[in-house]
Design goal:
Elements: H1 9-14, E1 17-23, H2 30-40, H3 49-60, H4 65-70, H5 72-77, H6 82-98, E2 101-108, H7 120-140, E3 146-154, H8 160-169, E4 175-181, H9 193-201, E5 206-210, H10 216-225, E6 230-233, E7 241-242, E8 249-250, H11 252-259, E9 264-266, H12 268-273, H13 285-290, E10 295-297, H14 309-320, H15 324-337, H16 342-361
Parallel strand pairs: 1-2, 2-3, 3-4, 4-5, 5-6, 6-9, 9-10
Antiparallel strand pairs: 7-8
Helix pairs in contact: 6-7, 8-9, 15-16
Length: 363
C-alpha cells in the first residue's frame, strides 16, 4: 500500500496539514517586525531580517523556557494597534496556507496587546479580521485554509475569567476555545479553577499548557482538577512510562491519558529549544505515537523555532521513519481533536485530508 512509504521533502510540502498549537505572537515574519518597529520607533536587536531571525532562534536555543519566553517582548511590542494585529494575523493565515495547512487553531493572549489602549474586544476582532483577510489572500493563490482563534490567558496574571467570558461571547464568531499559557512552575492551572468550571458550565472548549516545563503534577491537575480537553504540549507524560523493560509499561496517569484519548499538542522543535528533550531522536513523540496515544504535531512558535509544519513533519520522518500513514494519522488526530463541530471535522478529513494523502502517496 502506498501509504506505507516514506514521503519525500517535496511530497511533505504538498500534504494537507492541521495545526492546533501555534502562537500568533510567536510566528511573525522578521520583515514585518522590522517594518512596524521602524514606524513606532522601537529598537530591535537587528534591522536585517535574516540576522533578526537568527537572533530569535539563537536566543531560544538556550535550553531555558524563561529565556525563550523573553523573546516575545519584541513581537508583542509591534502588535499594539488594530492595523498591526490585522497585518500579523493576515500574514499568519497566508504563511500557514502556503505550507499546506488546511485547518489551524492559532492562539493569542489579548491581554498582551492592550499597551496602547486597545480593548480586549478590539484585539479579538482585529485578530479574527486578519485571519479572514489571510484566508482570502490564500484563496487567490490557490490555497484553502480555515483559521480559528483560541484566546489565551497568562497564568501569572489575573484576567483569565475575563478572557474566558470573551471566549463564550465570540463563540461562532471566530473564536473556538480557551487556553492558559505562561510559566508553569509556581503557577498551577488550579489557580484558575473557577474559570475552568465556568467554561465547562458554558459548554466551551479549552486546552491547557501542561507538561512542558513542569512534570506529571501539572498534567494531572490540568486533566483531573480542571477538565482540560487537550494538553498543550503534554510531553512530560513520558515520565509516567517505564521503558526499562522489553515492553513499555504505562503508569496510571499515562494509561488514563491514552484510554481517554486526550490529545497531546506536541511541538518537537520547541521542546528541543526549551530543554524538554535533548535531540529529535529521543523526543517522546516517537514512542507515544507507537503506543497509539492521540498525538498531534505542531509548531508552537514558528519564528522562535524557525520552523513550519513541513519542517516538523520532515523531522519526525527522518528521526522515526514515519510514513504517509503515520503523518496522516497525526493529521486526522488533530482534526478529531479540534474545537469545531464534529461534522465539520469529518468533512475536512473525508474531502481534503484522505483524498490528498492517497493521491500524493500513489505518485
Amino acid at each position: 500500500m502506498s501509504l506505507t512509504k516514506k514521503p519525500t521533502h517535496e511530497q511533505i510540502k504538498r500534504l494537507p496539514k492541521v495545526l492546533l498549537h501555534d502562537h500568533l505572537d510567536g510566528g511573525l515574519r522578521p520583515q514585518t517586525i522590522i517594518d512596524i518597529a521602524a514606524r513606532i520607533g522601537y529598537t530591535l536587536p537587528s534591522t536585517d531580517p535574516v540576522k533578526l531571525a537568527d537572533w530569535f532562534e539563537e536566543s531560544c536555543n538556550s535550553g531555558s523556557l524563561e529565556r525563550y519566553l523573553e523573546t516575545f517582548e519584541h513581537t508583542v511590542a509591534v502588535m499594539q494597534t488594530r492595523e498591526d494585529i490585522i497585518r500579523v494575523a493576515r500574514e499568519c493565515a497566508l504563511d500557514l496556507a502556503r505550507d499546506g495547512v488546511v485547518y489551524a487553531e492559532v492562539r493569542g493572549a489579548p491581554e498582551l496587546f492592550t499597551q496602547n489602549g486597545l480593548s480586549l474586544d478590539e484585539i479579538i476582532q482585529a485578530t479574527i479580521d486578519g485571519y479572514r483577510l489571510g484566508e482570502k489572500d490564500a484563496a487567490q493563490e490557490g490555497f484553502t485554509i480555515r483559521v480559528e482563534s483560541l484566546l489565551c490567558a497568562l497564568r501569572q496574571n489575573d484576567v483569565a475569567q475575563e478572557v474566558a467570558e470573551k471566549v463564550v461571547e465570540y463563540r461562532e464568531k471566530g473564536v473556538v476555545g480557551f487556553d492558559i499559557a505562561g510559566p508553569e512552575d509556581g503557577f498551577p492551572p488550579t489557580n484558575q479553577l473557577e474559570t475552568f468550571n465556568y467554561l465547562r458550565q458554558e459548554d466551551a472548549h479549552f486546552t491547557i499548557h501542561a507538561g512542558e516545563a513542569y512534570g506529571l503534577p501539572s498534567i494531572w491537575q490540568a486533566i483531573q482538577m480542571c477538565g482540560a480537553e487537550r494538553l498543550g504540549h503534554g510531553v512530560r507524560i513520558i515520565d509516567d512510562i517505564d521503558v526499562s523493560g522489553p515492553t513499555p509499561k504505562l503508569g496510571q496517569l499515562a494509561a488514563y491519558v491514552k484510554d481517554r484519548r486526550i490529545p497531546l499538542e506536541l511541538c518537537p522543535t520547541s521542546n528541543l529549544q526549551t530543554g524538554a528533550v535533548k535531540d529529535i531522536k529521543s523526543h517522546p513523540i516517537g514512542l507515544l505515537s507507537k503506543l497509539r496515544f492521540r498525538v498531534t504535531l505542531n509548531t508552537d512558535n514558528r519564528l522562535m523555532s524557525r520552523t513550519s509544519m513541513s519542517y516538523e513533519m520532515e523531522q519526525v520522518v527522518g528521526a522515526f521513519d514515519w510514513t504517509f500513514q503515520d503523518l496522516q494519522r497525526v493529521t486526522i488526530n488533530a482534526l478529531k481533536s479540534s474545537f469545531i463541530p464534529f461534522d465539520e471535522r469529518l468533512k475536512i478529513i473525508d474531502e481534503v485530508v484522505k483524498p490528498a494523502y492517497a493521491k500524493i502517496a500513489a505518485e
